[in-house]
């Protein structure tokens, strides 16, 4: 019997996954323990192995596609087994997806209608950022009418205004899907334009087919081509009369600095169209010579104002699962935990000297960040209030100390964790941090290596950032932001000398940590860093 494999939940925060690559293809034999695919979660790219034996009969999520947890990933069964009933919502094994999902999958495969050549499907446009449905106030074209690019098709009432909707296509209006006075949701069938006499009854009956309603465009292209809309197409001429122009014509004229009162319209009722503006030659209009010097002075042109002309360019990139997870977790932290920030400056002269001596030992390498992490672990032991977690009814005090170290990767940020950090030496901290950072950059961190932190350290000093604040990495109650070591004038024993200083900023959750507790923690941290020998005892 066929077994349905769903998108697995590979981390505690995973809500959807992206198939990075398939290691098996349809028809391949699968043994228990074989790697089926590599799946990108919100934290890492992980191998997903099979718990079943058989033949890979169907792949539901293609490479590069993203799907929510528990959606159909693939089907494994006996070679040649008929799985049509599974795909159409029939009975499946214990790992089955819901019949609703399967029915939707099947309907996508069977409902598409072939679109005749030259036929364009027009859907209800989204004419405002909050628009969910529109009402056709009036049609300016009727079935059988010729339509040219720039012609106004209809007036559509949105949630904000009644706006004119123009065509981007040439042809004949073959079908109207939403009649005057009717309301329809965005993307529903509005009209069909194509060659005169084309039979579109199948499309009209089936609704909007699988083909995109707009000309497909690459995401890296310039401004996305959408129907242009405006609340008015009336413009005032120089003599006070009214000029009618299509919205697209007005935009082009504005971009080119053309006065529409000088353009002759060839559209309905003298309406100026896109073609009229594009064909307009300014030199064809010559003002008559003034009769007198005073008239000449009065008729002198106003100073020219330079108006830049160009394209508004956007490029869209798909948000990775990691980026979505970062947005969700940090947004939740910032908007639920009342953050406050404490700042302290550390004299790093002794730390610089101590690090130089430590690194002189063969096969030993300690960074300033390692020293900060060690100092934090020791300070947390003295200030348990900082090593807490907020719950609605209790405050949890962690008796252990596990520090997370923020690491920047290509898609965003991950926080590998050093379990029981206070039990590690400086060299052990340095070795573990380098190992975890390397795995992070190669997307090889496991969920276990990124969970369980009780405090977090974020360091941007290597980028020359002298001071910054971070968002708390929940469920932690605090995060330390570490800046660069800089040389600056300092006062020592009454004299101004050149010193090496580093700024630390502590972000605290005011629900668990009061200001005095946060300040005391920073004072202890300062003592350890300014006297590194105390960390070696």
Keywords:
single chain, 537 residues, alpha+beta, OB fold (Dihydrolipoamide Acetyltransferase, E2P), Dihydrolipoamide Transferase, 6-stranded mixed beta sheet, 27% strand, extended
Write the layout of secondary structure elements.
Elements lengths: L2 E4 L9 E7 L6 E2 L4 E6 L4 E5 L4 E6 L6 E3 L3 E6 L6 H4 L11 H12 L9 E4 L9 E7 L6 E2 L4 E6 L4 E5 L4 E6 L6 E3 L3 E6 L6 H6 L22 E2 L3 E3 L5 E3 L2 H10 L17 H6 L13 H6 L22 H16 L2 E9 L1 H11 L8 H15 L5 E3 L4 E3 L5 E3 L1 E3 L2 E3 L2 E2 L7 H16 L13 E5 L18 E15 L2 E15 L5 H16 L7
Parallel strand pairs: 23-27, 27-28
Antiparallel strand pairs: 1-8, 2-4, 2-7, 3-6, 4-5, 6-8, 9-16, 10-12, 10-15, 11-14, 12-13, 13-17, 14-16, 18-19, 20-29, 21-22, 23-26, 24-25, 28-29
Structure, described:
The protein is an alpha+beta fold. The protein folds into four domains: 3-110, RNA polymerase II/Efflux pump adaptor protein, barrel-sandwich hybrid domain (OB fold (Dihydrolipoamide Acetyltransferase, E2P)), CATH 2.40.50; 120-206, OB fold (Dihydrolipoamide Acetyltransferase, E2P) (Beta Barrel), CATH 2.40.50.100; 232-285, E3-binding domain (Dihydrolipoamide Transferase, Irregular); 321-535, Chloramphenicol Acetyltransferase. The chain is 22% helix and 27% strand. It contains eleven helices and 29 strands. It has helices at 84-87, 99-110, 201-206, 247-256, 274-279, 293-298, 321-336, 349-359, 368-382, 426-441, 515-530, and strands at residues 3-6, 16-22, 29-30, 35-40, 45-49, 54-59, 66-68, 72-77, 120-123, 133-139, 146-147, 152-157, 162-166, 171-176, 183-185, 189-194, 229-230, 234-236, 242-244, 339-347, 388-390, 395-397, 403-405, 407-409, 412-414, 417-418, 455-459, 478-492, 495-509. The strands form eight sheets. A six-stranded mixed β-sheet has the order 20-29-28-27-23-26. Strand 12 and strand 13 (162-166) form a beta hairpin. Helix 9 crosses helix 10 (426-441) and helix 9 (368-382) crosses helix 11. Residues 90-112, 210-233 and 284-289 have low confidence and may be disordered.
């Amino acid at each position: 019997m066929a077994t349905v494999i769903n998108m697995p939940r590979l981390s505690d925060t995973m809500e959807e996954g992206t198939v990075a690559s398939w290691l098996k293809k349809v028809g391949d034999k699968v043994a228990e323990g074989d790697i089926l695919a590599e799946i990108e979660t919100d934290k890492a790219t992980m191998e997903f192995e099979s718990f079943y034996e058989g033949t890979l009969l169907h792949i539901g999520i293609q490479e590069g596609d993203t799907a929510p947890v528990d959606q159909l990933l693939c089907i494994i069964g006996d070679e040649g087994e008929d799985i049509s009933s599974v795909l159409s919502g029939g009975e499946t094994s214990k790992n089955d997806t819901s019949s609703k999902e399967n029915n939707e999958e099947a309907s996508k495969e069977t409902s598409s209608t072939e679109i005749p050549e030259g036929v364009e499907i027009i859907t209800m446009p989204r004419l405002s950022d909050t628009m969910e449905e529109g009402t056709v106030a009036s049609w300016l074209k009727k079935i059988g009418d010729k339509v040219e690019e720039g012609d106004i098709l209809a007036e559509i009432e949105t949630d904000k205004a009644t706006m004119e909707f123009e065509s981007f296509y040439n042809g004949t209006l073959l079908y109207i899907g939403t009649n005057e006075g009717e309301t329809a949701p965005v993307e529903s069938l509005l009209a069909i334009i194509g060659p005169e006499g084309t039979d579109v009854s199948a499309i009209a009956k089936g609704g909007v087919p699988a083909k995109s309603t707009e000309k497909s465009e690459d995401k890296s292209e310039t401004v996305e081509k959408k129907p242009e809309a405006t609340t008015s197409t009336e413009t005032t001429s120089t003599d006070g009369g009214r000029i009618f122009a299509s919205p697209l014509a007005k935009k082009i004229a504005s971009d080119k600095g053309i006065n529409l009162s000088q353009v002759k319209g060839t559209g309905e009722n003298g309406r100026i169209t896109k073609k009229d503006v594009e064909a307009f030659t300014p030199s064809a209009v010559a003002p008559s010579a003034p009769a007198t010097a005073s008239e000449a002075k009065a008729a002198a042109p106003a100073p020219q104002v330079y108006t830049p002309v160009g394209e508004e360019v956007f490029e869209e990139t798909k948000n990775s699962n990691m980026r979505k997870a970062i947005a969700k977790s940090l947004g939740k932290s910032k908007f639920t935990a009342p953050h406050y920030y404490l700042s302290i400056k550390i004299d790093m002269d002794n730390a610089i000297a101590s690090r130089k001596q430590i690194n002189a030992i063969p096969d030993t390498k300690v960074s300033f960040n390692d020293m900060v992490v060690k100092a934090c672990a020791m300070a947390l032991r003295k200030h348990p209030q900082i090593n807490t977690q907020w719950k609605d009814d209790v405050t949890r005090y962690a008796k252990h100390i596990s520090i997370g170290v923020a690491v920047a990767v290509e898609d965003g940020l991950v926080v590998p964790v050093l379990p029981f950090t206070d039990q590690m030496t400086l060299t052990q901290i340095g070795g573990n941090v380098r190992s975890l950072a390397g795995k992070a950059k190669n997307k090889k961190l496991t969920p276990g290596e990124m969970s369980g932190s009780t405090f977090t350290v974020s360091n941007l000093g290597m980028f020359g950032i002298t001071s910054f604040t971070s968002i708390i990495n929940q469920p932690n109650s605090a995060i330390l932001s570490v800046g660069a070591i800089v040389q600056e004038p300092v006062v020592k024993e009454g004299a101004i000398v050149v010193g090496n200083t580093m700024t630390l900023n502590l972000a605290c959750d005011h629900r668990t940590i009061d200001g005095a507790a946060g300040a005391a923690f920073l004072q202890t941290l300062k003592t350890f860093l300014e006297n590194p020998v105390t960390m070696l005892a």
